[in-house]
Amino acid sequence: RRRNTPREECFSAPSQSFLGEFDFEKNLALFDKQAVFEEIESSSYPAE
Amino acid sequence: FMKKHLNSPYEINLMDELTLKGVTQYYAFVQERQKVHCLNTLFSKLQINQSIIFCNSTQRVELLAKKITELGYSCFYIHARMNQQHRNRVFHDFRAGHCRHLVCSDLFTRGIDIQAVNCVINFDFPKHAETYLHRIGRSGRYGHLGIAINLITYEDRFALHKIEQELGTEIKPIPKVIDKALYVAEYGSEPDPDNE
Lengths: 48, 196
Fold this sequence. Notes:
The complex is a heterodimer of chains A (about 50) and B (about 200). With about 50 residues, chain A is mainly alpha-helical. Chain A is built from 2 helices and no strands. Helices cover about 30% and strands about 0% of the residues of chain A. The longest helix of chain A has 10 residues, at about 35-40. The model of chain A has no long low-confidence stretch (mean pLDDT about 80). By secondary structure, chain B is an alpha/beta fold. Chain B has 6 helices and 7 strands; from the N terminus they run H-E-H-E-H-E-H-E-E-H-E-H-E. In chain B, strands 3-4-2-5-6-1-7 form a 7-stranded parallel β-sheet, with helices on both faces.
């Protein structure tokens, strides 16, 4: 049912690795919402 | 039918009573493995009075609650596999303010009506608009002040698109600084005399 990606991998990292601040802006830049939405709208993905 | 059989009915728990009005909705783009790090940063940056954090499975609720505790934050958790009595107890204690954070799966069917909750975090983005509305929506009895933050992975892009379309709402990228007036009562336009 679920894809074979490691869905639990977010829980395995040691807490020490979270001490620095998460870089929201850098990550947001990796996702062009507008472009992704246009792609979804223009393609014929079955509606789930 | 309604008119014929119901004599001035008192309606509760209807979908259209839930509203997203007044809830500022943001998303943060993350990879699965960055979610806890992202959450930890949100906890340290936001002025959270009380928060509810949603996961998509009971197993993930337990794992996340454990992780949050490891990080040094107090939290309760509830999910569908706990017995009702235990759930009621935890929920009651959370409502009473015994704990700042509540991690849970989808078991609220009426939206959240705890006034002290000013921040809802979708650790896992839901698949359906109805679920999203139940998590984020307010029943309107209490003030409409609050923020919702969605952790979005690339796999969530279709659900994000679908939910925005179906609810006619917009979930914006999280800004560098979130205006406290959007979710902290004493900064807002709807000051709450009971809060303090």
